[in-house]
Structure formats: C-alpha cells, structure tokens
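Researcher: If convenient, please comment on what follows.
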Amino acid sequence: MTKRIASLFLTLAAPTLTLAAEVGHAEKSGLPPSLDQGLMTGIVTLIVFLALVVILTKFAWGPISKGLAEREAKIRRDIDEAEAARQAAEAKHQEYLAQLAKAGDEVRAILATAQADAQAAAARIKLQAQQEAEESKERTLRDIESSRRAAVAEIHQQAATLSTAIAEKILRRNLNVDDQRELVRGALEQLGSN
C-alpha cells in the first residue's frame, strides 16, 4: 500500500519538480522574475498535494482499503460458497447415479427372480400334469384289469354253469354220438349268445 502511495506521489509530483528545476535554471540564466513565481507556484502546489495525500491517507484511504478488503472477502466467500455448492451438487449427482445403478440392479434381480419363479412354476405344472397322467393311466390299467378279471370270472361262471347244465342233460338221457354233437353245438351257441 505504501508503494502505491509513493508511486502515485511520484507520478503527480514529477511535472512540478521538473518545472521547479527549469525555474532554478532560468534564474541563473537571467530570465525574468515571472518564472520565479512559477517556482513558487510549483512549491505551493507540491505542499498542497502532499497535504492532500496525507489527509486522504488518514481519512479516506482507511475506509477505501476497508471497503476493498471487505469486497475482496465477500468475493472470496462467494467463490467458496459457489465451490461448496458445486461440490454438493457433484455429490448429489454421484448419489443419484449410485441410486440409479442400485435401482437397475434391483430391477435385474426382480426380473431374474420372476423368471426363475416362472420356470419353477412351469416345471411344477409339468411334473403335476405328468403325475396326473401317470395316475390316470394306472387307474385306467387297473380298471381294464378289473374288467378283464370280471369278464374272465363271468366266463368261468358261465362255463361252469354250462358244464353243469350239459352234464345234467347228459345224465338225464342216454346220448349217442349225434346227440352229443348236437348238445355241444347247442351249448356253444348258448355260450356265444351270452
């Protein structure tokens, strides 16, 4: 800050000092006294300038410096706040991306579970259908076997009844060969009609 003041002082005082040097040179050279007044004006101007610099430094420079420092601090705070907001936004963005990836993983897991459940249900339904078909087949085979046994039992029953009837007829009458043939043929016809 002191360097700035000195620089400002030299910039403003240089023309005055140059004029004063020329006036001093003019007296030696025998120039008129009007130039002597120019030296006096330069000195007064320099004194007024120095007084103005002292007054401005004492009363105005402090508030100006303070205002500039406050403005610089505010700008730094604003920059820091903007950086913090940017970092917070970046963190939120990363959090959002992580949540999005997690949601994608969850969706894939749900789809995989649903697909596995569907395959398990299809396998279960297929197995159940196969079991029901096997049970139906076994039931049908049992029914067929039961019907066959019943038919065989009925045939045996009819054969026994027919044999008994034939034996009764044979015993009732004395048969010759033609009668026996007629009796067997009649029994077979009777068996065929049942």
User: Anything to note?
Assistant: The radius of gyration is 67 Å.
